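Q: For a teaching session next week I want to show students how multiple molecules come together into a single three-dimensional assembly. I've collected the sequence lines for a complex. Could you give me the predicted C-alpha cells for the whole thing so I can convert them for display?
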Amino acid sequence: MTAPILAAQGLSKCFGSRKVIDGVELNASRGEIVGIVGPGGAGKTVLLKLLAGLITPDEGTVHAFGNDFAGLDADQRAAVWERFGVLFQNYALFDFMTVGENIGFPLEQRRRGDEVGKGAAAAARSAEIASRVAVRLREVDLPGTQHLYPNELSGGMKKRVALARATIADADVLLYDDPTAGLDPVTSSKIFALIERLHPVRTGITVVVSHDIDRMLPVCQRFILLDKGRIRFEGDRAAADRSTDKMVRTFFDSSARLSGSDKTPIGVHRQFSSIELLSLKGGRCSPPSSLEYAPSGAQSKQGGGLRRKLRGVRSISILSDPLSEPTADEPTADEPTADEPTAASRVSR
Amino acid sequence: MAALRLFRDTWRWTFRGSLRRQSGPFARQLYEVGNRSVVFITVTLGVLGMISVFQVLIQVERILPEFSVVGPAFIQTMVREFAPTIAGLMIATRVGSGIAAEIGSMVVTEQVDALRLCNADPIDYLVVPRFWACVIQTVLLSVYGGLVGVCAGAVVAHYAWEIPWGTFFSLNLVGYSDVTSGLWKAAAYGMAIPIAASQAGLETSGGSEGVGTATTRAVVNASFCVVVLDFIISGLSFMLLLGK
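A: Of course. Below is the structure for the complete assembly, covering every listed component.
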C-alpha cells in the first residue's frame, strides 16, 4: 500500500455551535478516485475545503503529500497548492477575467513563480498557455469561447469552464465539488467521462463530491457516505450493497434510481421506488392532485418528467406493490393514460 | 487589528511590485473610483458651496455688512476642511460600499478561495489596486471638489450679494499649512476607506445577506474613519503648523 497523498485524521469543524464535521478520518492513495456522497448539509463541501487546506480544522490534521497544512508557512502552502486543482460548487470563476484568462490563470501564476520575465521566452510561454487553453476548451465542448466573460455564460458552461481551469495545470490532487449540479444528463455524463479521463492515475488522486451517484458508480473506486458530519459508510459499491445499514442501502439504490441513467431503462417498479424516496425526503418534489401511472420501460427522460410532475408533493401513497414487476397490460411511456393510473397510485397533499 | 494587518500587508505587497503586475486592474480602479465619482462630487460640493456661502452671507449681513472677508475665509475652510472631508465622506459611501460588495461577493462565490488556490494572494490582486486608486483619486477629487465648491459659492456671492469676483476669490487667508492639512487629510481618507471596505469585504460570510452586512459595515467604518482622521489631522496640523 502506497503512502496516502491526502490524509485527514480526526477532523472536526464547528460553525458557531453547529458541528459540521465530526471526527472524520480519510486517506486517499495514488491513483484513487474517491466519491463523497451524503444528504444535503452533511458537511461534504466543508470536508472538501478542509482537505484543500482552505479551512482550518478545529481539531485534527490534514496532510497533503506528507505535509501538515497547519505547519506550513505561506510559501510552503503555495507549493502544495500548486499541485491542487479544485472545482468549486459555485464555479468561482473570476468575474473580471475572460474565459480564456480564467482557465489560463493557474498557468500564468506558475509562470510568475518561474519568473520567466519578458521577451521571447515570455511570449512563447504565453502562446503555449493560449494553446493549452484552446485545447482544454475543445475538450469541454466550449471551443472559441475564450473572449467571453463569465456573466455571458450559462450555468452549465460556467461549470465546464471551471472544470477546465481546475484541470489545466495537470494537478496531482483534483477535488470536484458537485461537478454536475444543475446540468442536463448528457452534459453530466460528459463531465464524468472527462473527470475519469483527466484523473491522474499514476501521480495523484481525485475526490468527487456529488449527488449524482448513478454517474459516480462507474467512475469512483471508493465511496464515503457522510451523515451529519460523520462518516457513515466507507467502501466500494459492493460493500455498499452488502451493507446492512438501511440508510447506506437506500441512499445508494434510491439515488441511482432517482437520477436515472442514459443507458438503463427505468421500469415501473423503479419509478414507484423513486416516488417513495421523494416522499421520504419531505416533499422536495411536489404535488399534482393525482399521479399519473408510471410507464413501464420509461427512460430517464420520462423519469425527469415524472419528477417535474411531482414538484411540491408532501406525501404520496402507493396503493400497489411498489416492487412488483410491470405487466404487459400496463401503459407505456409513449401512451400515457389519464384514466387508468389512479387505480395504481394516489397522491395526497 | 485585522484592518491594521491588512494595511501593513497592502504596503508589503506594494513594495513587492504588486502595482506593476496589476497595472490593468489598477487602471480600471482609477476609472471606477475617480471618473465615476466626478458627477457625484461635483453636485455634492457644488450644492454645499452654494448653501454654505448663502447661509454665511445671511449671518454676516445681519451682524456686520462687510463681505470682503467672506470669500477668503470660505476658501480657507474649503481647502482645509470641507473639500477633503466632504469628498472623503462621499467616496466612503460610493466607493467603500462598492469595494465591500465586490470583494464580499467574491468571498461568498468562492472566488477568493480560488485565487488562493492558484497562489494569487487576495491582497495582491484585490486590495492593492483599489488602495492606490483610492489614494490618488481621493486627493484629486478633493482638489477638484474644492474648486467646484468655491466656484459655486462665488456664483451665489456675486449674483445674490453682488460681491465682486476679485474680492471673493482672494487667497489672502489661505496659507501653506491649510493646503498641507487638506492634502494630508485627503491622502489619509484615501488610505482608510479602501482598507475599511476591503476588510469588511474579506470578512464576509454567508450569502447575499452577508454581502449586505459587509457593505453596511464598510460604509459605517469608512465614514467613521474619515471623521476620526479629520479630528486627528486637524489637531495635529493646528499644533504643528498653525500653532507656530
